[in-house]
Design a protein that fits this description.
By secondary structure, this protein is mainly alpha-helical. Helix content is about 65%, strand content about 0%.
Length: about 260
């Protein structure tokens, strides 16, 4: 039995299981998960262990709101392509690394234990670190949906800078390895409940250089999430430049806000 099997291949009653996700999720209601934390930290930091197993250990520790998990996510985001498990998990659509998308989900899931563990500040730092790399790393349309409003407020600087870098890259003619424009729009959408005007400014900056049908469709989320004259103007802009699907969604968003 491998170390990862010992740590995540058994439920908390000691019974074997092949569902590692279930073990990770069950921990939110089972304090016995803390008994496995030291072993997972040791495994995660052991260069002699398989990269996949180290990654799974990081996912578990991060999901359980452990400092070691958050700190590893922050370190990984500081130097993404030199992360030990980089390219271990590849997205089928774009054939690019998807590990940061999974780490973002783990950071989000940590909300169930973060207060109990006293690691709320580290969780915010981890999300801010991930926001910094949204112009270069792929998040599978997830990050914008995962960041709560309080974290968005804390990460506004990182979000604005990442979108700015991404817009400049798109404007210069760079060919991203994935749908960068839509990912940046998704990040702008996360800002909408916090600052509608800024959300529109950020999304518009992206759409002015890369208004793909998919990016325009995702931008409609802003019309759903915020109100005000600038939101209505943005909806009218989307109606003017978007396809029939975009126009329909904008109309439904306006009708729902009445």
């Amino acid at each position: 039995m491998t170390r990862i099997d010992e740590l995540l291949g058994r439920d908390f009653d000691g019974e074997p299981t092949t569902d590692l996700d279930d073990v990770i999720d069950t921990a939110y209601d089972d304090p016995r998960h803390s008994e496995r934390v030291p072993g997972l930290i040791e495994l995660m930091n052991d260069p002699g262990e398989p990269e996949k197993d180290r990654f799974l250990a990081c996912l578990a520790l991060t999901s359980w709101a452990e400092p070691a998990g958050f700190e590893t996510v922050i370190a990984a985001a500081a130097d993404p392509e030199n992360t030990p498990w980089y390219d271990f998990s590849i997205d089928r659509k774009f054939s690019v690394d998807s590990t940061f998308s999974q780490l973002a989900v783990a950071v989000d899931s940590s909300r169930f234990l973060v207060e109990e563990k006293g690691t709320a500040a580290l969780r915010t730092q981890a999300f801010r670190a991930l926001a910094r790399i949204t112009d270069t790393q792929y998040f599978e349309d997830r990050l914008g949906e995962l960041i709560d409003s309080a974290t968005v407020r804390a990460a506004l600087g990182e979000i604005k800078e990442a979108i700015g870098r991404g817009v400049r890259a798109l404007a210069s003619g760079e060919k991203p390895r994935f749908d960068l424009a839509t990912q940046l729009v998704d990040l702008a959408c996360a800002v909408a409940p916090v600052d509608g005007r800024l959300s529109v400014e950020l999304a518009t900056s992206v759409l002015h250089v890369a208004a793909s049908p998919r990016a325009l469709e995702h931008a409609v989320t802003i019309v759903y999430r915020a109100e005000g004259p600038e939101i209505r103007e943005f909806g009218e802009y989307l109606t003017a430049v978007g396809n029939e699907r975009v126009r329909t969604e904008v109309r439904e968003a306006f009708e729902g806000s009445r």
